Amino acid sequence: MRDPYSILGVQRDAGSEEIKAAWRTQAKAVHPDHNQTDPDATARFAEIGQAYELLKDPKKRGLYDQARRAAENKKRDQTIMQQRDAARQAAERAKAAEKLMEELAKAQARNAQAGAETTAGSAKPETAEDMLERIFGADAKAKASSAEKQTETNGSNEHASTETAEQQSEKARSLRAASFFSALLRRIRGAPTAPEKAPDITAEATVSVVDLIEHKWITLNMPEDREVRFQLEPGMTDGHVVRLKGQGLKLPEAARGDLVVTLLASRDGPFLIRQFDIHTSLPISLADAVLGCEVPVQSPHGELRVAVPAWSGSDRAIRVEGKGLKDGNGGFGDFVVELRIVLLDSPDAKVMDLMRHMREGLYL
To answer: According to the model, what pLDDT value does residue 159 have?
Structure first.
């Protein structure tokens, strides 16, 4: 099951009454009887019920929160270990390649000396391709030639490729070995080699609604006692992935990798982000829900006044257009006010009497 807090649209520190109210709102909105044309309504209704069953029980909720924190810590530790393992493997490859380069350089020097000592009628000096074939076999020579041809044609075919993702993945695997021998070929010939890129680093950045609206600068603390800063831009929202070129892992004799940051919208405030819309909840009394009213609502842009139509239930959402996040295409999302009907703190005899008469069909 997905995160039950996300399913119900509540914060992780929400109280039992808030969770119950959210469950009622969500269940009413997606009930199969009200969404007969939606084939997924039954599955979504069941998912909402499962989320509520988990969160309404303090013991189950505590065990889930504990397991979630443990999973997050494990994922973070695994990411760090993967990064360290990738760095170690890259360093070992670089060391092995350097040793191999030394041997090839010696072989090239011997080849050059032998070529200088040959007479006009003697055999020609060994070429770079022949040297690869002698050391690694004929397959290495073929792969090096193939990689060179592929490099020459990549520029013209980059935008015209119609290959599927699986075909492209297979081609990438077959070219990795070829690129290694091609790099050796360039090294033997004296051509400069492009440095291998170090692995990327993934990170998460928690941002607030105000951060996204005001396009603030975000600072990340990196393992190497350095800070990486980047500015939020229009079109960024919850779940957006930012790639910072050259800000990732650094290895000897390799181009620095990238830093890949996933933006996570904070759930600590009164606002939630869905795509480019900003959502908030508005508690109203039963009388205001039945008769309608005009009330002030706090938004990230300041106080707004919204009109609640008469006979509005908890499944009603009022949209204020253009008061959401910038979508990156010159437009804006909306500010969405979700109504929640709340009763008075203590029972009201008149209201209870009226409801009793309505339920039993007795009208005064």
So the answer is: 42
